[in-house]
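ok trying this again, last paste got cut off
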Amino acid sequence: MENKTTPDLHVLPLFLKALLILSLVLGIFLRFYHLNQKIYSNDETFSTTYIFGQRFLAVDDSVVGVDELQKYQWINPDISFNQSIQRLVLEPYVFPPVFSVGMRIWSELGTHIFSNPLIIQRSFSAFISLFVLVGIYWLCWELFEFHLAAWIATALVAVSPFHLQYAQVVRPYSLLAVVTLLSSAALLRAMRTKTKLSWVIYGITAIGGLYSNVLFGFVLIAHGAYVFLTERFRFYRNLICYLLASACSGLIFLPWFYLFMASGMSSYSVDQVSSRIPLLSLIKVWIDNIVTTFVDFYDPWAGLTQNLRYLQLFFTPLILIITGFSFYLLFKKNPERVWLFILTLIGMTGILLMLKDIITGGSISTRFRYLIPTVLGLEIVVSYFLANWLSSKQSWQRTFGKVAASAILMSGIISCGIIAQTPSWSAFGSPHYPAVARTINQATRPLVITDNLGRAFTISYLLDSKVQFKILTKKASSVNVPDGYSDVFLLEVSKGLLQKLKQEQNYKIEPVLVAQNNSPKIQDIWRLEKN
């Protein structure tokens, strides 16, 4: 490559080498740190009830304790291990079975090591995320054959606040990152070596990707566009091999995809991201997401970070400028096969979904966890820029490279350190729940009434064993509030249930927490008292 004057790590000063090592060590450590102290998210409750084959049947007059409620988030003793695996393969969910089956096996093994279900469940995602570090190094090497760029990319991903969060939730987003990186590297290697074995390996990674996350389909579209464009639509060996590998992987995935479409899960997934957002708001969210991939000091709902708001604002233009210049350098310094691959990887996921939201409405592009290939592409581009300037013949470029690399890595380390110490961030459950839980726990004999089972599961991990739950169905015609409780709370109940309590019965309802404008993942919580 024309830019590589000194491609090895020896071009780095000692403090930058130490910073790279520190980033890797801390990034790995923090993935497994405080796994049981992060607030359980609503999405995680959906994942675990499905994976463990649990089904809570709400009976309007029944009352359950915290411990009994949490049993529905763990292994179902009434379903054998073999039956559980069979059900996960044959009953479609919003994500394909690789993550679910892996989690079920991991949980079975984890019971012999840990006693806390949260640690067992989340450690599976954390373990998977370690392969992201391997995959990003391999892909950068296939793209640039540049050790320094590969090491910087690995360090950036290790301390990326975005990757850290999704390495600690019971969802298959780290798995999507792994299969995206491994399949992309396998494709480039197959096109370079042109051997049958390398194309078989690519086909296997493509099958694994499809059975890991439906969103991997965008990665395959990107791969197809890349191969067609680099081969100039001529049916030479690479294009033929790609078509065979993608066709085989598609056929093998077809049975599960048919079950997925027939189950109606596809329409459910689309409905979750159908809300319309004004264009200016969309752009603001896109900018925030790009910046928080590298630097994430501030969360408006975390009191610990209020003093860091302006520091976050300071880094926003810097990250955007570095990202923009990184793309310029990518196009200037690399052959078409390199920049075209990154462009298709980013364009067929992020840009495509952004355009969809602009043209037809929707907000899917604001969920950056759905755009993981785009995130990885951005990190690779920035890593190449930093490595290029660190190894430049120009002293001023090397100086700037040292400052920029140090600032981004240190910012990532600080961001991850802050997130590690807070019970909630953007990927986790409601940041208000610790305060709510403390209020409930202070009661002598509290009862929590709700018709939102997911929220009950979420907050249950913050409550003492003395707390009782009354889970109502959405169609409950009346509410029977039992006697004998010192305090009765309403947890994010539906408007219909709230109206019944206000109009049909003589109750005084006082807010414990009233949601502020734009308050995340939470409605209101009340204390219920008889007049």
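PB: full thing came through this time. Residues 141 and 348 are 22 Å apart (CA to CA).
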